[in-house]
Amino acid sequence: MVFQILVLWLCLNLPTANSATHSLKYFYTVLPQSTGLPEFSAVTYLDEEPIYFYDSSTKEVVARQEWVKEAVDPDFWRRNTQILKETEKVLKNNMATARDRFNQTSARTLQVMYSCEWVEETGATEGHEQYGYGGEDFLLFDLKNERWIAPVRQGHITKIKWDANVPKLKAKIHYLTHTCNEWLNKYVSNRRRMLQRTVPPQVTLFQKEPSYPVTCHATGFYPNAIMIFWRRDGVEVHGVDVVHEETLPNGDGTYQKRTHLAVSPEDLQKHDYKCTVKHSGNDVVLSANRDSIRGNSRNTQGVSIIIITINMVLISVILAFSVIVLVLKRTMYCKGKEPSTGKEKQCPISRLEKNVLLLNNSKPAEMEKSKLSHSADTLQCPTQDTTGSDRSRTISSGSSVGSDDSGDSTTPFVKKL
């Protein structure tokens, strides 16, 4: 099948989270420099839905679904970013190799696709890998017969070389039949758990000024289906007095929504206004009154009090510091003898100056010297400095010497053509 048809089929299919057959697919694309687009991009799909992405412009693996962040370990993003940086180099060389084999002056687009499928009811699995160049199939992996197939003459050299490398061939088979399916099962389970969860909304009322509308704000809820409406004396308010904003994502997998009520301060005091939020069978009702509505005017008063208090404290500290400096300068000036008479200088000392001098001349209690001791969880090891002398460096046994990159990665490795 032509490689372009496979890509077109992928774009036309909608996500099928509840389908009995699940798939995990990795698409790598290398473009010639003349296109103006990122020369390399990698997209991972779960059931035809993109879950994370990388390209040569950002050089960073980025999640496209919030639930993916909780499905992987914290080092996942760094580890796979490094793998894809190396993959980018290999595939750019492969594109140049394919260009030379086709005897072309300029390269064409190179595409690579890895995938595995899992039938949930039967447990049956399948694995695929193929290379495309210039919109045509270049190499296909026959998992059943454990061999490569070259649909075009220019791919035969690579087919013979890859078939002869038995260790790499076995590693490829293991990845498509085991590692890929392990990640597929893990992603499906985590996505299902996240989609089935229910997070209730946090509801608040606020108003910028008394003449502004009162806003009923619900945030942090999941799923995104929610209803917000206002009631006055038990009767729902409709029309131009109520404005509903669209539901927006928060960026952490939850959502928020606002509904505004236009009401005068007199009408708000005269009638009983309530905001009702309905979400996943749960109701939250808030009465709109002076105590429940957050306003900028009240917040501003509180902030002003805090600012005034801080300023008073700062002024007091500055004044005290200035007095101490002046007294100390005066004291230093009065020390010594008069140049004309040779007598000691005499300066009048106020009560404030006496207190400052007593504070400045008081001797602190002697600190008892503590003996150096080494705890049981430290290690003395010698290090060599630039002068060649040995120095002792203490390293805690609980500190980390390095990171462990062991473990299977979800991102497959590629090989040179």
Automatic annotation (TrEMBL):
**From which domain of life does this come?**
Eukaryota
- Would you indicate the residue range of the signal peptide? 1-19
Q: Which InterPro entries match?
A: Ig-like_dom, Ig-like_dom_sf, Ig-like_fold, Ig/MHC_CS, Ig_C1-set, MHC_class-I_related, MHC_I-like_Ag-recog, MHC_I-like_Ag-recog_sf
A GO term (biological process) for this protein?
immune response
- UniProt feature, compositional bias: Polar residues: 373-384
Q: Where is the composition biased (Low complexity)?
A: 394-411
Which family does the similarity line name? Belongs to the MHC class I family.
Among the Pfam families in the record, one is: C1-set
What name does UniProt use for this protein? Answer: Ig-like domain-containing protein
Report TM segments.
Answer: 303-328
PANTHER family, alphabetized: MHC CLASS I ANTIGEN TRANSCRIPT VARIANT 1-RELATED (PTHR16675:SF237), MHC CLASS I-RELATED (PTHR16675)
Q: Which UniProt keywords apply?
A: Glycoprotein, Immunoglobulin domain, Membrane, Signal, Transmembrane, Transmembrane helix
Q: Where is the Ig-like domain?
A: 201-287
Q: Which cellular components does GO assign to this protein?
A: external side of plasma membrane; extracellular space
- Disordered: region residues: 367-417
List the SUPFAM superfamilies. Answer: Immunoglobulin (SSF48726), MHC antigen-recognition domain (SSF54452)
